[in-house]
Amino acid sequence: MSDPQGEVPAPRYIPVAPTEFSPEAFEGVLPRRAFAYLIDLTLILLVGWLFIFLAVLLGIATFGLFLYLLPMSLLLALWPTVYHTLSIGGPRSATPGMRLCGIEVRVWHGGRPGYLQALLHTVVFYASITLTAGLILVVPLFHNRSRCLHDILCGTMVVRAGS
Questions:
Q1: How much is the pLDDT for 151?
Q2: CA–CA distance, 155 with 71 (Å, rounded to integer)
Q3: How far is the C-alpha of 151 from the C-alpha of 17, rounded, in Å?
Q4: Tens digits of residue pLDDT in 32-68
Q5: From CA 131, how far away is CA 135, in angstroms rounded?
Q6: How far is CA 5 from CA 11, 12, 55, 100, in A?
Q7: 34 closest CA partner among 100, 133, 121, 128
Q8: How far apart are CA 154 and CA 161, in angstroms?
Q9: How far is 79 from 107, CA to CA, in rounded Å?
């Protein structure tokens, strides 16, 4: 479509070329990633146990008045999704475990993922782990950038922090 003078308007989007990360950005990412997940899993479990402990303690202290909080512990099933989504979609694009291990999540063009992409990343991760009983975690062993299947499907990658 052209304007009345016959000029073709500029495209309304800016094409983005993939950023090339140096090979050093992917060195040692796989063991760091595994250790980071163990740290994150520990934090997730600690928060869950703390909530249940406090709910039981409040229930006992109030002679059962606050025991209605215990059924709310079923909402703790959403806690890992919230934890990962807010951490990965946040300004540091890394969970606390990832930050301790010196890695972060990036999108394919080098930018940081937003909250929607972080949510997709998290949901696809937990779905793939559940559906394959964890066997999907062998994929990064055969990928030159140690990308997991959920990284590939969501257009993300894990690199060393500051790369």
A1: 92
A2: 37
A3: 18
A4: 999 999 999 999 999 989 988 988 888 889 888 877 7
A5: 9
A6: 17, 19, 71, 58
A7: 100
A8: 20
A9: 24
What's the token pair of residue 63? 């002679």
Q: Quick check: helix, strand or coil at residue 19?
A: coil
User: Which residues have a Cβ under 8 Å from the Cβ of 126 and sit 6 or more positions away?
Assistant: 80, 81
Has residue 125 got a pLDDT over 60? yes
Q: Of 21, 22, 163, which is closest to residue 103 (Cα–Cα)?
A: 163
Segment (H or E) for 124: helix 115-132
Question: For residue 3, what are its two tokens?
Answer: 């304007």
Q: Contact 89/119 with Cβ under 8 angstroms? A: yes
Mean pLDDT lowest among 1-5, 12-16, 20-24, 95-99: 12-16
DSSP 105: E
What is d(CA 18, CA 79) in angstroms, rounded to the nearest whole number?
33
Rounded to whole angstroms, the Cα distance separating 141 from 111 reads 25
CA angle 11, 15, 17 (to 5 degrees): 165
Q: 124 φ, ψ to 5°?
A: -65, -35
Which tokens is 130 given? 């559940």
Q: What is the distance between the alpha carbons of residues 28 and 25, in angstroms, rounded to a whole number? A: 9
The pLDDT of residue 95 is: 97
